[in-house]
C-alpha cells in the first residue's frame, strides 16, 4: 500500500500593509481615536490657559509664565495629533472638523485675553476672529455635502499666529528689552495679513472644488 504524499503547507499571502506607512483610506478610523482625543484635550486646555492669563491681570508674574507654557504645550499637541492621524491612518471627517475648531478656540481665546489685558489692539483680534469663525460657520453650512480640509496657507497662518502670540505671552521684554516685544508685534502683523489672504484662498478653493464636482 502506497503511502500518501506529504502535503506542502500553503504559501502565506504577502501583507500589502507590511513595510509601509498607513495612508488615509487604507482602513476606516474610529472617531474616538487617539488623534481626536489629543485634539479634545487641546480644547480643554484653552479655558485653563485663559483663566491663568487673566488671573495674572498683567502683573507678569508666575501665573503669566505658566499660562504661556500651557499655550505652547497646547500648540505642540496640534502637531502631535496631526502626526498621529497621518502615520497611524487615523484621519476622519470628524477630526478634519474638530482640529480647526480646537485651533480657533485656543488662538481666539489668547487674542481676546491679550486684548482684555490691553496688550493687543482690539481691531486686530476682531479681524482675525471674524475670519476664523466665519470660515468655521461656512464649513458647518456645507458639511452635509462635503468636508473641506484646511488649505496650506491656512495652516501656515495658524503657525504665525501661534508664534506671534507666544512672543507676546512670554514677558521676555522685561529683561531683553522692548525689541523682543516689537518682534512679537511684527509677527502678529504678518499673521494678520496671512489670515485674510488664507480666508480668500479658502473661498477660492471651495468655488473651484464646487465647479469640479457640481
Describe this structure in words.
- The longest helix has 36 residues, at 178-213.
- The termini are far apart.
- The chain is an all-alpha fold.
- The protein has a single domain (34-207), classed as CDP-alcohol phosphotransferase transmembrane (TM) domain (Four Helix Bundle (Hemerythrin (Met), subunit A), Up-down Bundle).
- Residues 9-28 have low confidence and may be disordered.
- It has seven helices and no strands.
- The relative contact order is 0.11.
- The protein has helices at residues 34-56, 62-87, 93-116, 122-142, 152-169, 173-176, 178-213.
- The protein is 71% helix and 0% strand.
Highest-level CATH class: Mainly Alpha
The overall average pLDDT, rounded, is 79
Number of strands: 0
Helix content: over 70%
Tell me the name of the CATH homologous superfamily. CDP-alcohol phosphotransferase transmembrane (TM) domain
CATH architect. name: Up-down Bundle
Number of spatially distinct domains: 1
Report low-confidence residues grouped into runs of 5 or more: 9-28
C-alpha-based Rg, rounded:
23 Å
Order of helices and strands: HHHHHHH
Distance between the termini: 74 Å
CATH topology: Four Helix Bundle (Hemerythrin (Met), subunit A)
What structural category characterises the helix and strand content? mainly alpha
Amino acid at each position: 500500500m502506497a503511502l500518501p504524499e506529504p502535503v506542502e503547507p500553503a504559501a502565506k499571502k504577502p501583507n500589502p500593509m507590511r513595510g509601509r506607512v498607513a495612508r488615509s483610506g487604507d482602513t476606516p478610523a474610529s472617531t474616538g481615536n487617539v488623534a481626536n482625543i489629543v485634539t479634545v484635550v487641546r480644547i480643554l486646555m484653552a479655558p485653563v490657559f485663559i483663566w491663568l492669563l487673566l488671573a495674572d491681570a498683567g502683573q507678569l508674574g508666575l501665573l503669566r509664565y505658566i499660562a504661556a507654557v500651557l499655550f505652547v504645550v497646547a500648540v505642540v499637541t496640534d502637531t502631535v495629533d496631526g502626526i498621529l492621524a497621518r502615520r497611524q491612518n487615523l484621519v476622519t471627517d470628524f477630526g478634519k472638523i474638530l482640529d480647526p475648531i480646537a485651533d480657533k478656540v485656543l488662538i481666539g481665546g489668547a487674542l481676546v485675553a491679550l486684548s482684555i489685558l490691553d496688550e493687543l489692539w482690539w481691531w486686530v483680534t476682531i479681524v482675525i476672529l471674524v475670519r476664523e469663525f466665519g470660515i468655521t460657520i461656512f464649513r458647518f453650512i456645507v458639511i452635509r455635502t462635503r468636508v473641506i480640509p484646511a488649505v496650506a496657507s491656512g495652516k501656515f497662518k495658524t503657525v504665525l499666529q501661534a508664534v506671534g502670540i507666544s512672543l507676546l505671552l512670554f514677558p521676555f521684554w522685561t529683561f531683553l528689552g522692548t525689541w523682543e516685544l516689537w518682534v512679537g508685534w511684527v509677527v502678529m502683523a504678518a499673521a494678520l495679513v496671512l489670515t485674510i489672504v488664507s480666508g480668500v484662498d479658502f473661498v477660492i478653493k471651495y468655488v473651484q472644488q464646487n465647479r469640479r464636482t457640481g
